[in-house]
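Appendix B. Chain record.
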Amino acid sequence: MPFFTIFIPTFNRGDILQRTLNSIRGQKEHDLEVIIVDDGSTDNTKEVVEDWRQAVDFNVIYLYQPNQGKAAAHNTMLKHAQGELTILLDSDDLLAENALATIRHHWKQAKQEPDCAGIEGLSIDLETGGVLGTVYPRDGMLCNYLKMRQQYGVKGDKLNAIKTSVLKAFPFPRFAGEKHVPPSTVWSRIAHQYQFLHINEALQKKEYRADGITKGWDDKKTHNPCGYRQFYLEILNDHKDYYALSKRFSCARRYVYLSLLCGIKVGQQVSEMHNKLLYAMAFPLGFLKYLKTKNARSAMTRVR
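Structure tokens predicted for this chain:
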């Protein structure tokens, strides 16, 4: 069994995927497997992967599936991953120098904690070298995802190396006709049972592209309303103790709006959401947002 599984979801990134793959090949640590899930690419992705496979001394698994989105690719990977730790690496990101050796070093101690699920470290900007988001309050903090993000206010992309057995217990939920589910859905669920060791060391180099998965969140909500609706409902019901009232109100407004987009009737919304008063307060703004979106869609249809 390899120590690391490195998971790379990709879609038409043959032009830059080689850069990501070479950052893995350049690591001193080669006790690993790489699982690449090609989510319906129509470019030369398969050829790039095959050429690279011939040049490395570890197992490379290439899986092709019709375009279904990153969450589906993630769930496909879970069926094949065998490493002790799994690293999630986007196809336009790079591992920092010696990232794998750094993770293994810290995991030797972290795994002694029964509720520690892995290591989380910093991401830096590929162009500037600056830290993306914020650093952790203290190096070596043992903390869960929700507390680190909501109570300590840590922001920005980070790199996780998580126990594969834990990750397999928390697959992404899927919703018919939708391709995107907020990654925080999974990390928030994990937070109720597990913590991460957080290190203020750069483990990843990240570049933002105009067509990247982190772009256009508003469009993603509109086109994937049921996935986002579930995300906000879980914040309101399951993770509420970690969120300030102002944030919960904002989530409630979005829950109403997205529920209506999904065709969920008001009665069901009320029964699902535990805080009925918060729902009543948020409903007018959520309903107004729904009407604006519906009218905008109608206008676009008339133009066509």
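Further analysis of this model is presented in Appendix C.
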